[in-house]
Design a protein that fits this description.
This protein is 39% helix and 22% strand. The chain has a six-stranded antiparallel β-sheet, with helices on one face. The protein has 221 residues and is an alpha+beta fold.
């Protein structure tokens, strides 16, 4: 069944607020927060708690000229923000341009760099580079299209961004999170009400079954 955002990611909100969350999970949380108000609220609470804890910490001694160096760093960051960046040179792709803002830029950058990879009939995937060692992919699933049946080498977190899919565990719509591990075998099928976009983060690759699994093993992937 679709997971409750608060129960599934509760322990990650404080890590995000403290700046210790892996970039892949940060993208997952930020994107989900654009789809679910309760996630935005939980993230705000985490940031508030982190701020209160920081205020109660014992002040640390600062080195000479540390204030001036900090101000110089701020000036550099502001200058970089004003300078032309990759967002101004992103390719045009109407569907990807409709994605929530945290996801839109890395998706368009990946589209411009590598383009879509066909996984199966009606299924395409796009590998995203967000500065993480984890595997991050955006899936485009047409209505009725079936992702090849598979299990997982590790943990997989899949966020439905738009549309929806259904598998052996239930139906998932925008903002829902599906969490699967090595013990889970499933075959997501795109719902009939429109194209499904889903963001997946995993610490190991997919392991296909059936003919796809045989091909995968022959290729050594």
């Amino acid at each position: 069944m679709p997971t409750s955002p608060a129960s599934a990611f509760g322990e990650l909100y404080s890590a995000y607020a403290a700046g210790r969350l892996d970039p892949a999970f940060a993208l997952l949380l930020e994107t989900q927060s654009m789809l679910r108000p309760q996630v935005r609220q939980a993230m705000a609470v985490g940031e508030t708690v982190s701020g209160l804890m920081l205020e109660r910490d014992q002040p640390a001694a600062m080195s000479a000229n540390s204030g001036a160096r900090a101000l110089a760093m701020i000036d550099e960051m502001e200058a970089a923000a004003r300078a032309p960046d990759a967002a101004l040179r992103l390719p045009e792709e109407p569907e990807l341009s409709e994605l929530p803002e945290p996801l839109r830029e890395p998706a368009l950058m990946a589209y411009g760099d590598m383009g879509w990879q066909n996984l199966a009939s009606g299924i395409r995937r796009l590998g995203l580079d967000v500065g993480s060692a984890l595997e991050v992919e955006l899936y485009r699933i047409q209505p009725g299209a079936r992702v090849p049946r598979h299990t997982h080498g590790g943990q997989e977190f899949t966020l439905v961004v738009s549309g929806g899919f259904t598998d052996e565990t239930g139906s998932y719509g925008p903002g829902d999170m599906a969490i699967n591990g090595p013990e889970d075998t499933h075959q997501p099928v795109g719902d009939a009400d429109g194209i499904c976009y889903a963001l997946a983060v995993r610490d190991s690759g997919l392991r296909f079954t059936g003919v796809m699994g045989l091909v995968q093993r022959l290729l050594g992937k």
